[in-house]
Amino acid sequence: MADLLKPKTPFFLKVLSFLFRVLCILAVDLAVTNLNASVLGLTSHYPKPLVTLLGMFVVLILFFFLVSIIDRFTKYIFKVTIEMGNFLKFRKTVMLLIIMAMYVGVFTLYHKTWFGGWPDPKEVRSSFGLQKLPQIEIKY
After folding, report:
1. What is the pTM of this model?
2. Are 74 and 24 in contact (CB under 8 A)?
3. At residue 60, does pLDDT exceed 80?
């Protein structure tokens, strides 16, 4: 990632690198959230202070190892996306669409983790002020 900080690196690659890094951080946080939910389930078997220490230990271990993996994972996804984009006509658009699809996937998994169910498309549309999708009329 240090090579992306060089002045000759195109701005678009810097933006892609940033988007992938944010995506990886969200994925790590999602993993920590799911593991903490499992650790909190242990309160019925063990004292709360012990479960708290266990949860803190799990978070530290995950972030210690996963943060070092984020750079490798980001570079790999970045490389695969660029290689896939090289075969297509609108490379930048396709790469941004791939990233946005990954963000939608992470959003869906967060919703499933936090609320115990998959997001309802109607609720998502209404939350963002999109009560109705625009209708296109084609006249023949």
Report:
1. 0.64
2. yes
3. yes
Contacts of 95 (CB under 8 A, 6+ apart): 16, 81, 82, 85
Interhelix angle 91-115/11-40, rounded to 10 degrees, is 20
Q: For residue 60, give both structure tokens.
A: 């530290």
CA distance 25 to 70: 7
Q: Which two tokens stand for residue 114?
A: 């936090």
Chain position carrying tokens 């790999």: 76
CB-CB contact of 23 with 106 (8 Å): yes
CA distance 81 to 100: 12
3-state helix, strand, coil in the chain (%, to 5): 80, 0, 20
